[in-house]
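Morning. Coffee machine broken again, so started the prediction first thing and wrote up yesterday's gels while waiting. Chain of 105 residues, entered below exactly as on the submission form.
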Amino acid sequence: MPDPFQGRAPSEGAPYDNALTIAPSDTTDLPVIPAAIYIPHVLAEDGSIAQNSHSLHNVQIQLQSGEAITILSAGTVNNQPVLLPFRPIRILATGTSASHITLFW
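Came back before lunch.
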């Protein structure tokens, strides 16, 4: 998996050039190591809320060291997006309550 930040000083700050919304997986690594992750507000096809970014979600991530940790986060606080400054190699389905997560890099 390519790491566009290899050789650069770590920074979680914007602006970001790319974003990709993914579904968590216990078996598939992320297509890129992100600079930050975000839990978006997701609507179902019928317009109902499928994932509320104002609710707290568990996000189980696998770090580059191989360690898996659980983060509890809301996608927004006071209508401002909350970006999680983690650079995981995988976002695990087991232990993650969010069904869609956006990667920024």
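The mean pLDDT is 90. Going to sketch it on the whiteboard this afternoon.
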